[in-house]
Amino acid sequence: MSWLLKLSLVGVVILAVLMAYLDAKVRDKFEGKRWALPAKVFARPLEMYPGLALKPQHLQQELEQIGYQRVPNVRTPGQYMIDGNEMDIYRRYFSLFDGAERAARIHIRFSGNSIDGLWLDGEPVDIARLEPLLIGGIYPKHNEDRQLIQLSDAPDLLVQTLVAVEDRDFYQHVGISPKGIARAMAVNVQAGGLVQGGSTLTQQLVKNFFLTRERSLQRKITEALMSLLVELHYDKNEILEAYLNEVYLGQSGRRAVHGFGLGAQFYFGKHISQLSAPEIAILVGMVKGPSLYNPKRKAKNALARRNLVLGIMLEQGLISRYQHMMWSKRGLQVVQYSQYQSVEYPAFLDLVRRQLRSDYEDQDLTSEGLRIYTSLNPVIQRSAEQAVSKRLTQIESGYGLAKKSLQGAMVVVSHESGEVEALVGDRNPRYFGFNRALDARRSIGSLAKPAVYLTALRSQRFHLISPLDDGPIKVAGGNGQVWQPKNYDKKSHGVQPLYLAMAKSLNQATARLGLTVGLNNVVQTFKDLGVQRNLPAYPSIVLGAFEMTPFNVAQMYQTIATSGFQTPLKAIRGVTTAEGELLSRYGYAVKKTIKTEPIYLLQKIMQKVVELGTARHLNSQFDATLNLAGKTGTSDSQRDSWFAGFSGDKLAVVWVGRDNNKSMPITGASGALRIWAQTFKDLPLKPLYPLSTPNIEEHWVSVRHNALSAEGCAGVEKLPFIKGQLPTQSRRCAAADTAPDELKSWWNRVFSQ
Amino acid sequence: MKKRVIIIAALSGLLLLNACAPASFQREVLRSKSTLALLPSWYHEEVGYQLAGGNHYPGNQALANLLRQADGAFMQADLARCQILLERAQRIASRDASVYVRLSYVYWVLHKTAQAEQMALRALALVAADAQAKLEVARLLAAIEAGHY
Description:
The structure holds two protein chains of two kinds. Chain A is an alpha+beta fold. Chain A has 24 helices and 35 strands. Chain A is elongated and about 115 Å long. By secondary structure, chain B is mostly helical. Chain B has helices at 2-20, 23-38, 49-52, 61-75, 79-92, 97-109, 113-126, 131-146. Chain B has two domains: 1-28; 39-146, Serine Threonine Protein Phosphatase 5, Tetratricopeptide repeat, CATH 1.25.40.10. Chain B has eight helices and no strands.
């Protein structure tokens, strides 16, 4: 055998091995799972019913977000119209984890800022749901997103145009086309630039599926070999279907838009089967350069490219001359805002992902196309984001701080259900990075005080007017250190009734109270409120000298807001497969951890914090009948500004601080509280009525004397007490003591000083 | 021999008839049976009648609608759907005790007594001012705690 023959034999063997390897690779990809489909995450569906407090502009905002189009006359699903105080919505069909809702015409009549009447397809109904906003995805690597379609979903014109523009010999060649390459070269020379590519659709698919974008001879050869193998195993329709799903069609933030299915939704807000000829021309034109011909960003380029494709369509007899003339003059008509171009909510998505971690592998979330239904309320989320961003800027300019030197976080919860409705983890709400709502462990300062007062009220030794000494206090530590807390104003306030000590957030009185009731008991109360970390029984914990995340603070205050019934905070309601089969549901759970009576008294004190204490700024912003409750918090050296406040339905915790933990010139009241107020200023809230029991009774008392008194006596207040836990002394109402009706209450006099 | 053939033919005929019956009918019968078997005997008579259904639905029509659907799902032993509907109801009227009473029943039927008890406690806290309702929920709670189911 000559050396040439031997060499040829070796070459044949190497080629055979290579072909076998490539063949296995091709079959593996085509016969296995071709695409990783990201999980899609949805907000809550809006439940509408007569009596619901809903501002028409908030409904309109949500409709715009979910891609509904305002029209003069509603004709097809996805449209709405406004006529005075009435609104007509043609709802699209949509599915949820608990079933599907059919497409239907919803008619709504508003009375002011609430729904007065509701009709579905002309019939009055009690309740109707609106489709949820798509709020993001959990993407595989490269953040690829797509909507899988079958070839039969694609209009014939799309397939014909694609073949005409990208690969005219598609149905004749065997994966590579020398004729196609020659024609492309001729066209390109004639046009004086790159107008047509030489790669077949099969080659393009192979390149996208298996290879890199590297331009080398080796890659070209591999591409050609694999294209032959693909053509050998699969018919033209299978290849075309794979191509239609694989092709890259531009970027939306971090998300890569792949496939004509998602492309049709993203650029035109419609299903692929409903694409018009000019829209098909735009999408097919984008294949050559998705960034260069992106109709949303490079309109001029995209228009020229579309018209060139329309020209090819005319030349191939796919459209008439008249149609070509008409469509060439038309604008691009891409949708500016649609479900599929959704604004993402990084902090909330982060929470969703973490809460799913116990039940799902990361790979399930990024590849199975799961549908995750959450509790996010887009209207509240938007309001919270804007409030954090705007207020921080205002605080910085108001106090002469460097721009962007402050950071913020916010957690909004529907406290009865424990559902997280909004989450802000950065002043830039679109930032995918450090999530302060979940991960910023910061000193909670006075936000700890309710636990101390609750411990006192639970102990059966204290009531609302128990006198507390606010004199200076010193506690010696084991290692010779002395803990000597001071009030914010550096003054002592003598003897103060218990509720007033908390309403004014007095540190000295609180420290003394904490030590009196016992640090271990205070630690137990923190646990009962849902604080999971093991707190050391150090004196300083009573003033919040320990760290918590805003999310954990929200859990603690959730227990307070719901009268001692603790519900684990959750962001997810249900998860289904891509086909809608329910995989898991996250229902309501509750545990009573604290008796109702002491919590009732605590809520009353926290209402006084808003009415007369450190959070009284809310009085000027909200209707007094809402009876809001809350607590401000400022950590040592003003490094952290907190506010936790709640109404009858919503609880929100706000944190403001610096990432480098340096001090700020603001307190809880001048920082975080303002963000809370701004967030809820225009949102409907339910009034808070603390949950009473027959064990709660009201008595007229003389606060100053820590004694029971009678109505009409001077300086008396009617305050709630737990049965059997009353002031031990009684003060007789002497004639001279009788107060005229117009006399200011003792409480008001103190606070007006 | 002849008898055996007749019996086999009759049985086959019955099986065929059963198979031909509408699927929904078959399911309905089975579901009702199983649900009623799970219910405590006093369900319709004493505990929870006023709170948990009967003809007494709340004035809030959206809430009443969801509760009616939830009761229907419960009677069909579709407890998962029942829970979902009750949680929707809870979001609309989180202080309506009858929602929690129903949730308590559902958990009880599911043998999740700890959650059944907690739901009943939630209901109890909400009806504190209503002596009759309080008595009913307290009896439910006592029954759960005593394991009388």
